[in-house]
Amino acid sequence: MSTSKTFLITGVSSGLGRAFAQGALDAGHSVIGTVRRTDDATAFAELAPGRAQPLVLDVTDYDAIPNAVAEAERQAGPIDVLVNNAGYGHEGALEEASIDDLRRQFAANVFGPVAMIKAVLPGMRQRGRGHIVNVTSMGGFITMPGISFYCGSKFALEGISEALGKEVAGFGIHVTAIAPGQFRTDWAGRSMDRTPRSIPDYDAVMDPIRAGRQAKSGNQPGDPAKAAAALLALVEADNPPVRLFLGEDALGLVNAKLDAMRAEMGTWHALSRSTSFSG
Hints:
Radius of gyration: 20 Å
Oligomer: single chain
Helix content: 40-55%
Strand content: 5-15%
Largest sheet: 7 strands, parallel
């Protein structure tokens, strides 16, 4: 039986965050879970009295994070696993969306997770162990029209995760990016921030995408409970991966992109090499 761990999971009121927390609690672990509302805090504490410890915190309130995490550790003990799950999706053609839309997307999906990492790293480094799991997306490697800001934020978190893993490997700390495909959550429904349509030229691209995504919400192929089981297997691994794609759809789309990248690199290989100094 695995040793009980203390998880800090952001965004546990719904979706994958709630599934991750429930899975960890069911396995006997303790979970500090961030929520933004006191009602959600009460509901979370009732999942496993004494082991489910809510933390009312908005991950975009960067100044509040260090003290909030320190207080959580004083009450629950050292954090073994940080799961940066909180975030949301933004849908909108880039030309139609605003710079404020972009700022909000990166605040939640990139800057918030980095602030959480910075809060837990000193303790993990001093103890010589820990695992940081950043929930990215298959959209952090592949791209789809209509979610350019979202893909950009997840690409950024993927890069940060991979580089951070190289920085902290010598301290006994693992860093993994979990990249889910389509899971049956509210991500594409009420949780999605949608920029209003304004430029008819994009109708042919955006209208089918928006209608299809809304129709599929609630019918996605991925099972959140199975994603939670995968997370638990990941944190028990002696040599966890740098990234873990979740779902057959993610694997298929990522492999297709890798094939396309290799083909394109081959086509332009000579021009790529032509830029080096001779000799």
